[in-house]
Amino acid sequence: MNALIRTFIAVELDPGFTENIRNLQDRFSGFDLKFVDPELVHITLKFLGNVDELRIPSLSAALDSITCEPFEATVRGIGVFPKPSNPKVLWLGAVGNFKALHDDVEHLLEPFKFEKDEREFTAHATLARVKFLKKEQKNAFINTLKELKDIEIGTMWVNRVFLKKSTLTPKGPIYETLHTVYMD
Questions:
Q1: Mean pLDDT calculated for residue range 94-101
Q2: 147 pLDDT tier (thresholds 50, 70, 90)
Q3: Which of 102, 107, 124, 179 is an active site residue?
Q4: Is there a smaller number of Cβ atoms within 10 Å at the N or the C end of the chain?
Q5: Which domain holds residue 93?
Q6: What is the CATH number of the domain that holds 72?
Q7: Choosing from 42, 102, 107, 179, which is the catalytic residue?
Q8: Is 107 a catalytic residue?
């Protein structure tokens, strides 16, 4: 039996953003959140789930056909899913040609029969998962969100896409790059 590996396709953030992301997460340290390691924060284009390791070479080859041109992106803005009154995920926004890149990836993966994303794609990088917010903390959380909604982390050049393996551990996920696509 072949091994199944938990995989996703992502754009990595500029390593120069790590300190700003850490500082931003510190602003939420008073709440019961499970933070993503600032060095691992990324923009997921598509979560593939458990994939037979024998499919990785053909997935990689398909991704090598990405036609989206490299583009400049700005990482800015902060928000939550699904909504401020019931936050589950705290995220950092990203502005750039991500929708075209996402659509390109979706199209290239059609032959593999992965489930299509049901929701409209929103380029974002998860900062934390909200474990629990006490009633009396909700307002403070929402106010912190409002205060930081226009925060700008920086601008970066998007010219690579990564096929990643994610191994879940009690200390958090471990990511490993299985394939890199250089956009040109």
A1: 97
A2: very high
A3: 124
A4: N
A5: 4-182
A6: 3.90.1140.10
A7: 42
A8: no
